[in-house]
Amino acid sequence: MLTQTGSPKAQQNKPDWYQATARYGKPDLRKATWQIVDTFIPYIALWAMLIYGVKYGLSSWIILVMTLAAAVLLVRIFIFFHDCCHGSFFASQQSNRILGYISGILTFTPYEDWRRCHAIHHSTVGDLDRRGTGDIYLLTVDEYRKSSGRKRLAYRMFRNPLVMFGVGPAFMFLIRFRLPSKGARAHERRSVIVTNLSILAIFLIAGFLIGIKTYLLIQLPIILIAGAIGLWLFYIQHDFEGVYWARHEDWDQMRASLEGCSYYKLPGILKWITGNIGLHHIHHIRPAIPNYNLQQCFNETPALQEIIPMTICKSLKTPWFSLWDEKQAKLVSFRSLKMIHQ
Asked: What is the pTM of this model?
C-alpha cells in the first residue's frame, strides 16, 4: 500500500520503502557540473546567434526556432534554480546559493523570496485550509457559489487557459516577481532588490552594446515562452483528475505527496528539458533529491512506479477542471456545476 492516513498533528508512519529513497538525495558534483555545461553554454550560444540574427535580418523562421530552443533551455535552467532552492543541486549550500542567484536572475525570479514561498508550498500541498502560498489559486464549489458575481467572473477569467498560460507568465515573471511576497523577511526582500538591479544592469548594458530593441526582441519572447511552459508544468503537477485535497484535520502529508502531485510521463527529450520534474510525486516525497537522481530513484523503487502516470494527451484535458468539489472529493469543471447537487 502506497499511502498512510492520519492527522498531520500526529506522528505519521512512513511506508517501508520510504527510508531507502534517502540515498538518492546525495548531490553529485560531476553530474551537476555537466548539467551546467550542457545547458548554459548552448543557452549563451543561442543568445549570441539571436543577436546576430535579429541585427542582420535572418529569416523569421530561423529566429523562431532559435528562440524556442533558448526558451526550453531557460526552463531547464529554472529546474537548476529550483534544485538550488531545495539545497540539492550541490552539496555546498554556498554553491547552491550562488547558482541560485545566477539562474534566478536569468529567469527573472528572486532566489531567497521564491525559496521561502516554495518551501511553504511543499509543507501545505493538498491542504484546503492552508492554500494561498506558492500554489495556483483554487476555489471549492461552495466558495465559488458564495462568491459575488464580480469575484466569480474574475476567477473564471483567471482559470481560462488563454489567460493562465498567456497573460499569466507575463504577469508572474515581469511584474509579480519584481515585488517581495507577503511575509518576506529582510534577506528575502534583499534578494528581490538584487535580482531587480541585476536585471536592470543587464538591460542597460545590453542596450548600450546591442540596442534596447534588439535585447527586448530576444529576451521577451524567451522569458514568456519559458514562463508559459513552466506554469503549464506546475499546473499539471497539482491540478489534475484524481488529485488529492483534504481539510487540515484530515490532511496526510504522504498522501498529499503521492496523490496530490502527478507523475507526468514524458518522452526522453522532454524529460531532459524539464529535469525529470514530471516525477513530481517523488520530488515531494524527497525534495532533497536533485533532478539528475530522480529517474534512478523511480527505476529502483517499485512502489513509486505504481502511481498511474499522466500522459501528454490526458494532461490536455486538465485545464477545464477549475473547482474542488468537497462532496465528491474531486476537481470539477464550471460546466458541471449545474449537475452538482447543492
From this structure: 0.93
